[in-house]
């Protein structure tokens, strides 16, 4: 059974507040001040904190502690061989710090001036500072993951997961950039890219707490699969929302992926089923495109079954993700993790 | 006693070949190929490999093995409690990988088109790829440091050293950028910046092998000091060489630091002793400056005692660095480390 959407939203919000307080604590505005202000810029601008919420909920579920009853600085180890104080909040902040570093560098690469409703770091500061802020967060994420107090063998495994995750995120981003210059990308290649660019960090968010708490291999592997599945579902759902959610709710022009010629699960399926993507939208910037033009393009994608394909794909991934949660004790935190998987594809934006 | 300059050059060259072979092995041209080619671009373009040479020589000195007699994949641990196969080459490649990542990102920030006689990564590829290549090497450096086979407690300490080193390099680079916009930088601030931007990686190169091999705290701390001293000496010597080495030997216009208004140990000392830096060189680009103009500026700096100041400072730092080597067994590798310290300030370019 999954927790209701409302319960998930509340659970994520409650943990978000704790994560935000910890970000301020772990990442104070040190000297050089400009560098640290730039490093904190996006972290302070908001964000749902879904990944650290996954980390904390997995810890709660594994240790069978009451949600939010746990002190995130002192989770009990699972096998009684380790210390009784493993600081899962340090791991959660580490994961969010990696996410923030990738957003800062991605915004430079994509020349995006806005993020979370505020100027991106390179816009608010400058490109030099943005590159350095990302590099600083990168190192800090490893420092935080070294500060959980877990036994060294587990810390080494968690760091190994973190390093390999970062490598794969870079590989995924590199594929994403390369796909912009290719006309023959397949849906399979796209899903691989999404897995590397987005899903691996969800996988790390779910797996790392299991490693640090001393869970067995079956459990850590199942949690990795949960993260991979919901991460892919999340991105593919984003592709659909870009087409179906009104612009004012989306916070940007609906269909901007189409206008920008971005390949998505929807458009790649359509291309494989005879739709000519170059003819879908003629306008070349989100500013000049009309709602009627987007409506016509969405109708064509709908007729090709491509929107339904992406919806079904993300739904299947969420079901698969939830099935992996069976390794966890049957408790409220597990129900929230299942609910969170559903929330990722049921959210309106 | 220090090894002769000739012996040091030979020792570094012999280890460089082994490091280069290991770089190819640890960092194959994987997929996405463009990303990995960009990641390897500077590593393949050469470089002295001074930092990994320090790492390997410290390992040889500590374990009292004959220089180059050691198999870098299987160094013996010092205290007999650990395994007999600690791969110091993985650590050496990790340090060099960090160095390469910082060069790639620094070149983007400084808009430098050339590095080691080849186009910088963002020139040979593009800025997006260069950011990602740096980010990939960053993660790989942690992966390599996780692959030495050292006991987990030591691996955790080595990774902690690596992460904190990266944070400090970013802080140092941030100070360097900030100094370009300030007229009141002091020599003390400059030396702090050099320590963070450059010297900490030498410190890590010297300290990490001691940690991994299980040396005591006195030894690891002395080696850290050795690295800090020679790293600072290296940079301050570079500041002098920019003024005194003929352009054709330097590979760039002599005095380009002056033309570009870069603050150095020499110019900051001069400013503190009444020299007006703005009047030193009128030409604004290395292309338009004349040898006569540089000669006049150098004469003024010389008259202020600033060149002698920087020479003495780097010499004192090398002497200090060498004194810290007394914690090591008296062997050939230790003499090479002392000789390497002297080489850093005696090299012609």
Automatic annotation (TrEMBL), chains A, B:
CDD domains: Trans_IPPS_HT (cd00685). Pfam families: polyprenyl_synt (PF00348). InterPro entries: Isoprenoid_synthase_dom_sf, Polyprenyl_synt, Polyprenyl_synt_CS. The keyword Mitochondrion does not apply. Keywords: Magnesium, Metal-binding, Transferase. It comes from the Archaea. One of its GO terms (biological process) is isoprenoid biosynthetic process. Its cofactor is Mg(2+). GO terms for molecular function: metal ion binding; prenyltransferase activity. Belongs to the FPP/GGPP synthase family. This is Polyprenyl synthetase.
